[in-house]
Design goal:
By secondary structure, the chain is α/β, with parallel strands linked by helices. It is built from twelve helices and 17 strands. The chain folds into three domains: about 120 residues, Rossmann fold; about 80 residues, Udp-n-acetylmuramoylalanyl-d-glutamate--2,6- Diaminopimelate Ligase, Chain: A, domain 1; about 120 residues, CobE/GbiG C-terminal domain (Nucleotidyltransferase, domain 5, 2-Layer Sandwich), CATH 3.30.420. A six-stranded mixed beta sheet has the order 2-1-3-4-5-6, sandwiched between helices. Strands 12, 13, 14, 15, 16 and 17 form a six-stranded mixed beta sheet that branches. The protein has a five-stranded mixed beta sheet with strand order 7-11-10-8-9, covered by helices on one side. Strand 1, helix 1 and strand 2 form a beta-alpha-beta unit.
């Protein structure tokens, strides 16, 4: 994690230099030190650069200085950098901004341990040893769909309310007053809020107090003719997932055969859905191609009988539908899920 440390006094400079030195041994944080009186225009003049280029900031200063310097750049808890404040005496390391998602709580703990200072964590869930929903989502690479509802459900957990939990994955959030639901529609009236982990769309919940976390559990195998436009592949993926009542935000990986490694349309689709492209060798495809219908034309063209179905199968999960063919594109979908 790339961290900018800023200091304003001689004592702060010494603390910052110590953090830089000790971070090189930790291999967890890489700290760069910016000293106010050694910068033309001072630290304030380079704040846009620091906020843009660094994942976190450590202010060795009064909390008020950090607040004033950061105020123009605070946007959203999912985008804000981690901000930690260390007092000039090196006694406290205060998690000031983006404690969970940005990682300021962990950074404050590391700074505290490094300087033998007291880490100050004020987020309610941490102080009650409750696993926050946003950290649970980040840990498991779940997309947080309705962030305002996440705040509401987290507040319920902090207050000890009964919360329902429905998930098609194995991971379970750590909370004492949690009721595991086998069906999100069957809800005990005593449950005040629900956490849902699913890549399905259109789940009907008899309550408006729920938050949705979308797991990355949809794998897509693609084959196509040469030079197929990316927008056509994207459209086919979206339409196919729509028919299956699945969210594109749940796409984990797109896979294809090595012959299609440089296919621009497939690469564009990966960029659009923000997912990696997995390339399978001809040998990997051949090992399992007998499980699927064969195309002799494809065999003569690239050396294997099919591409999309073997690719989706190799990526993992339950095959959801027969291969889709349209306009020179073949598409197959597999879904990894502990519970349907």
């Amino acid at each position: 994690m790339k961290i900018a440390c800023v200091s304003f006094t001689q004592r702060g400079k010494e603390i910052g230099n110590k953090l830089v030195k000790l971070s090189s041994r930790a291999n967890r944080y890489t700290i760069y030190h910016f000293i106010n009186n050694e910068i033309n225009g001072g630290v304030k003049s380079i704040m846009p650069y620091l906020v843009k280029e660094y994942e976190g900031l450590i202010f060795i200063s009064a909390t008020g200085i950090a607040v004033r310097f950061m105020k123009p750049y605070i946007r959203d808890k999912t985008q804000d950098p981690a901000v930690v404040v260390v007092d000039d005496g090196g006694k406290f390391a205060i998690s000031l901004l983006s404690g969970h998602i940005g990682g300021a709580n962990e950074l404050a703990q590391w700074v505290g341990s490094t300087l033998k200072a007291i880490p100050v964590i004020t987020t309610a869930s941490d102080n009650r040893d409750i696993e926050s929903i946003d950290l649970f989502a980040i840990k498991n690479n779940y997309h947080m769909e309705n962030k305002d509802s996440i705040k509401e459900i987290t507040a319920m957990m902090v207050n000890g309310s009964k919360v329902g939990f429905y998930s098609e994955m194995e991971e379970i959030i750590d909370y004492d007053n949690l009721t595991i639901l086998s069906n999100p529609k069957d809800i005990d009236p005593s449950i005040e809020g629900i956490i849902i982990v699913s890549s399905k769309t259109g789940i009907k919940i008899p309550s408006n107090k729920y938050c949705l976390l979308i797991p990355k559990n949809i794998n897509i195998g693609i084959g196509c003719r040469k030079n197929v436009e990316g927008k056509r592949i994207i459209e086919l993926i979206e339409n196919t997932l729509g028919r299956l009542s699945l969210s594109p935000k749940g796409i984990k990986t797109i896979g294809t055969v090595e012959v299609k490694r440089g296919e621009t349309g497939i690469i564009e689709a990966c960029n659009y859905f923000n997912c990696p492209l997995k390339i399978f060798s001809l040998e990997e495809i051949k090992e399992i191609e007998d499980k699927f219908p064969k195309s002799h034309f494809v065999k003569e063209t690239i050396g294997v009988y099919s591409v999309s179905e073997p690719s989706a199968y190799l990526l993992g999960g339950k095959m959801l539908a027969a291969k889709i063919k349209k306009d020179g594109i073949t598409l197959s979908i597999a879904k990894e899920a502990y519970k349907e």
